């Protein structure tokens, strides 16, 4: 009888002791992570603090400040670390640590794309078919990329800037954030689908505004779906949908699916040898061809069989949807910051223009407003243009935030600490790009730090090693060469022909803090003057 009465109390005591050990004592004092400095006193026992600063868009700045005082490895949650410094980055990102489930939110239409794929073997198989068409040598020699660039720059962008110089427009200027978002979507969609089937957002302002609204709605998407997937799933199940986000995703998804369908139909009807260079859907062709080859060579034994080969149309659409999203906003943000920074110095614009006009042929418009495309290799080798782009990507990285990976099953050494498997670990371009030992006066935008005359060879090597705007290792940005080529081309076309002047730059100096970093008001009004 006595034993019966005591047992519930005893069970509660045992449970309390177990819970105290499991959730307080072990993570705080006994876990292998207990030796690592805590970002916050609650970090070993709860994710609340890190989720709070992530949700309120303060993570990059706060963790950067904490790394400065606590060192290159800090514990931000019970099972989550933040690292800073090139050694840790090499171990994690060049070491092939896999992505965690955090990235599954980037599956589109319910199927994975290369960006969201977690297992390394599956990721490599996806990358095989497209890495060639995104390589520097391919892009620089592609007739299609050149023809598409010509049409977008001379047929759409420069006429728009010329219009903006008319007397009627003065003094309001033109919203270059919106214009750059249109230009970059036109560029990436032309390379993916061909110019005929891609977008023309430079002309279609209504569609541009509509799509940009949807982009905006997605900006908080990540925090709930990525950090609290079960809670988010439950909310949806019981009828509490994330209306704006779900609707925005659905509509963007349907829009991209239409582009894929039109391209597929055109590829069936057209004779490829009769297709104009600018109409070649370079990425679509490579992807569809790659999946067909994989089916032929490996069939049902391929790692891609269950997710892609049995579902080719959706798999292609998922991949391409990711490219239009990844390839537009990042480049658009960077171009906005480049033109904002250049608009603050007429001397720098004059130096840049002198360099651009040294190209043979250069991009100066003739009397009849036509012009040539430059030699891509010459363009790439211009030192000041390169320095301006690199410095902008350093200080205003469009993906400044934490890029999570997971430690492998066997314990690994991160700095002085032995870290067990299954721990989320991440570095950020925001912190790496603000290391004053490598980038003196890190908050100052100073392109000369990238010029060869500045500093000795060792210093330059250090800067290049620490540059992380495109990440590093096997999961680094596949579009980095496309982005660099596109940005240089667009800046060269504009500044060979115009000077730019700030009309309204409110919000440009505050870049949002998160995985993606946008100018807070997402607008930049500039006035252009034709160079005579
Ligand atoms: C300035 C422009 C760009 C920047 C700064 C940038 C940055 C990045 C970064 C940091 C990552 C790694 C993210 C992570 O692991 O969490 C990434 C991946 C990726 N980016 Fe970019 N990107 C840019 C332009 C582009 C363009 C034009 C494309 C067009 C295809 C693109 C497509 C991708 C893809 C597909 C991945 C996933 C790669 C993989 O998982 O193997 N990006 N990008």
Element order: H for helix, E for strand: HHHEEHHHHEHHHHHHHHHHHEEEEHHHEE
Small molecules (ligands, ions, cofactors) in the structure: protoporphyrin IX containing FE
What multimeric state do the chains show?
A: single chain
- How much of the sequence is in beta strands? 5-15%
Portion of residues in helices?
40-55%
User: Total number of β-strand segments?
Assistant: 9
Explain what the structure shows:
The protein has 532 residues and is of the alpha+beta class. It has a domain of 300 residues: Cytochrome P450 (Cytochrome p450). It is 53% helix and 8% strand. The chain contains 21 helices and 9 strands. The strands form 3 sheets. It has a 4-stranded mixed beta sheet with strand order 1-2-7-4, sandwiched between helices. A 3-stranded antiparallel beta sheet has the order 3-9-8. A hairpin with a 2-residue loop joins β1 and β2. It starts with a helix and ends with a strand. The relative contact order is 0.15. The structure holds protoporphyrin IX containing FE.
Layout of strands and helices, then pairs:
Layout: H1 2-30, H2 48-55, H3 59-70, E1 73-77, E2 80-83, H4 86-94, H5 120-130, H6 136-141, H7 143-164, E3 174-175, H8 176-193, H9 205-217, H10 221-227, H11 229-237, H12 243-269, H13 282-297, H14 305-309, H15 312-342, H16 346-357, H17 376-380, H18 383-395, E4 402-406, E5 412-414, E6 417-419, E7 424-428, H19 429-432, H20 457-466, H21 480-495, E8 498-504, E9 525-530
Parallel strand pairs: 2-7
Antiparallel strand pairs: 1-2, 3-9, 4-7, 5-6, 8-9
